[in-house]
Amino acid sequence: MSENIILIPTYNEIENIGVIVNEILSTYDHQFDILIIDDNSTDGTKELVNELAHKHEGRVMVLNREKKEGLGVAYRAGMKIALAKNYKYILQMDADLSHQPQYLKNFLEAAKGADLVVGSRYLNGISIVNWPLRRLILSLWANKYVRFFTGLKLTDFTSGFRCFRSELLNKIPLDHMFSDGYAFLVELTYRSFHLNAKISEIPIVFIERRNGESKINYTVCLEAAVIPLKLRFKKLLGTL
């Protein structure tokens, strides 16, 4: 058992999940365990990840969930398992190959001096491949919006490529978090900041998915717009 675990949520990622799991396992010799949280995929992903767990027993685990409840719910479930198993560093990354395994070692290095490390697409300018202009503008605007309402100075609040020290996650009331999707990432960051966590960013290059469909929809975008206001007011009222 490694002291590091990577959480990868999946929903209908049959074309991608096997590729990323095999790349991690072949690149890093027992440096990372992997926990895949599958939300009852219907395209064969569920069967594939269970095969991977059987083939790589001890390094790959699967949490099979009964229904699709969203990114935040999946991550919370995975984090609870990782904390119960006493992993030291808990990483999260997307299943769609937009997050490159080559950066995993950089997260561990940065985590030696931080409680939370965020892989930023904007730390060294714009490092995004194959996004349409409208999506890039929306992402840039969203980060400025979150910075304004939360007062945090990060460059990338909605990056899903992260590394947490378990000591920090143990302090966060996961069962009392109220957001999902990209808003879940914002809430995690905000709560970490107000626990006096040391947060750092490292540069990454984000490559848009080549296969499968994005899970971003109107509901996800709306929640992401509302959550910074909700967090700010809850903090002011002392109910966070």
Give me the CATH superfamily.
Spore Coat Polysaccharide Biosynthesis Protein SpsA, Chain A
CATH architect. name: Alpha-Beta Complex
Q: What is the H-and-E element order?
A: EHEHEHEHEEHEHHEEH
Average pLDDT confidence is: 91
Gross morphology is globular
How much strand? Answer: 15-25%
Largest sheet: 7 strands, mixed
Report the C-alpha radius of gyration, rounded: 17 Å
Structural class: alpha/beta
Number of strands: 9
End-to-end gap:
35 Å
According to CATH, the fold-level topology is Spore Coat Polysaccharide Biosynthesis Protein SpsA, Chain A
* Range of helix content: 40-55%
Which CATH first-tier class would you pick?
Answer: Alpha Beta
Oligomeric nature of the chains: single chain
Low-confidence stretches: none
Give the strand order, joined by hyphens, for the main sheet: 3-2-1-4-7-5-8
Quickly count the domains.
1
Write the layout of secondary structure elements.
Blueprint: E1 4-10, H1 17-27, E2 33-38, H2 45-55, E3 60-64, H3 71-84, E4 89-92, H4 104-111, E5 116-120, E6 128-129, H5 133-150, E7 162-165, H6 166-171, H7 181-193, E8 199-203, E9 206-207, H8 218-237
Parallel strand pairs: 1-2, 1-4, 2-3, 5-8, 6-9
Antiparallel strand pairs: 4-7, 5-7
